[in-house]
Amino acid sequence: MGAGAVGTSVAELASTYGHTVTGIGDSSSAAVDPGGIDVEAVLERKRTDNTVGQLAPADLLDGAYDALIEATPTTLGDAEPGYSHVTSALERDRHVVLANKGPVAERYDDVRRVERESEGTMLFDATVGGAIPVVSTIDAFDSDSVSAVRGVLNGTANFILSRMATDSLDYEHVLAEAQDLGVAEADPTFDVDGTDAALKCVIIANVLYGGGYTIEDATVEGIQNVPASALSLAAEDGRTIRLIGDVADERILVGPRLVPESGTLAVSGTQNIVQIETQHAGRLNVSGRGAGGHETATAVLRDIGLLE
Question: Phi first, then psi: what are they for 5, rounded to 5°?
């Protein structure tokens, strides 16, 4: 469900992982075939007609499938329509793999409650860090063994801060460049005001502390007011500025932070990095491209593999 960059990438790559796509849906239509749809034809129709088929999205949810891939856009508050898609699948005892952050950031306790009553399983490694196995790495540890998780979790904000630092450019100039390059959305608000990074940190907190968190529990500051002069001054002291998300002591903090210029958190461009502080294994650094259709699709397909 969802025919954006991630959803279409999952559909394109599914066969190479040995899976059959029995349906694709977007906000207004669906194409369904229990024997397997013609993915190429459906995606071409989406490109040319902006529709994937002649059926309603509900027909996809009611169709034949082992796992629902929820890749619709993230929404705040009630996390709809993603939340209803997830619960519909779980209530039919189907598995769910999420790329949509909303249900596990805003209604984590609710979806876990439905999952407990289902024979299906919900996995969501793709919701944090794209292809980087952040959620699964944290989940592999006993919660008492992880004392903190922090990192750079938004590629758009990181690209902007990196370019501002490298070439002493102001925020508005670099934002326009990022939009021209496709690194930033036409409306980049979620990325630059810290919301996207905060949602990912909320998901981490829910995994680490067993639920109970929404974005309302996060203290969030964006990068819109970071001047180029601040980055220049930081460089004189061997430091730079990055948008850092921090989950520790049952608190969630997101905002611009000074970090050593040669340190592990000073990743450049659209790279993401997550540091996991563990009791016995020390600090683990997990990094890579944290966004992109194919990158995030690999995390989705990795989760599907765990369900087999």
Answer: -60, -45
Q: Catalytic positions, please?
A: 200
- Domains of the chain from N-terminus onward: 5-131+294-307 (3.40.50.720), 135-289 (3.30.360.10)
- Helix H or strand E segment including 9: helix 5-14
Q: Give the up-direction half-sphere exposure of residue 49: CA atoms within 13 A in the CB hemisphere.
A: 13
pLDDT digits (tens, 9 = 90+) for 68-92: 999 999 999 999 999 999 999 999 9
Over residues 256-280, the pLDDT tens digits come to 999 999 999 999 998 999 999 999 8
Query: How much is the pTM?
Result: 0.95
Residue 116: what residue type? R
Q: Which of 230, 265, 270, 213 is nearest to 244 (CA)?
A: 265
Question: Per the omega criterion (within 30 degrees of 0), is the bond before 81 cis?
Answer: yes
